[in-house]
């Protein structure tokens, strides 16, 4: 069947093994000093391992592959003396106010692809529609579309945002975007090597004053921070750098 599945570039892989424990299904193993898929039917194609590869050797491709087989996963893990992956649940949350229920999780695989619903918070004082001021000072914002020589990057504090962050974090405009130039993208669905190259060009051409990366807590989101760090190392400049992780229910994790 034609489906999405992990692919590992042997030229980039240095066999560090960081991807192995991030795969709950045990689909990745080290053979002759390189990470490889043990079998296609063990890989769910959701990419929990993406953000753990320091060499950016792991990507998702669409190709002919055996269907993901949960029974095969359980047998494979049992042969290694490991339990089958537990059903994924939504992260524990504090007691919900006003009688609201906690979030609910469904499905398995990469936490970044897990379906979840959360209780709505108590409404704030009503405001007229559209009364809050956007802090966005440029367009476009997608990393694929921005020009690395755009004038708004010169002397700017740059905010690099995983594109789920503004949805999860309610105060995104006021707390992070205000006064900054911004680029955004999805490290799970896009090419992180392209991100690293584009950001290297941006840092080289523009007098960026500081870089802040906003990413979600899910493992696959680490790719956007990795691309930013690679670009900073490649550009040869000393630019102040900070990472902030946002929880899937909107809390700042660090």
TrEMBL record:
Pfam families the UniProt entry points to: Fer4_6
Domain of life, per lineage: Bacteria
Bias type Low complexity, positions: 78-98
Domain called 4Fe-4S ferredoxin-type: residue spans: 4-33, 34-63
Signal peptide start and end residues: none
InterPro entries membership: 4Fe4S_Fe-S-bd, Corrinoid_activation_enz
SUPFAM superfamilies, per the entry: 4Fe-4S ferredoxins
PROSITE patterns from the UniProt entry: 4FE4S_FER_2
Region spans: Disordered: 76-133
PANTHER family linked to this entry: IRON-SULFUR CLUSTER PROTEIN, IRON-SULFUR CLUSTER-BINDING PROTEIN-RELATED
Protein name: 4Fe-4S ferredoxin
Top-level taxonomy: Bacteria, Pseudomonadati, Thermodesulfobacteriota, Desulfuromonadia, Geobacterales
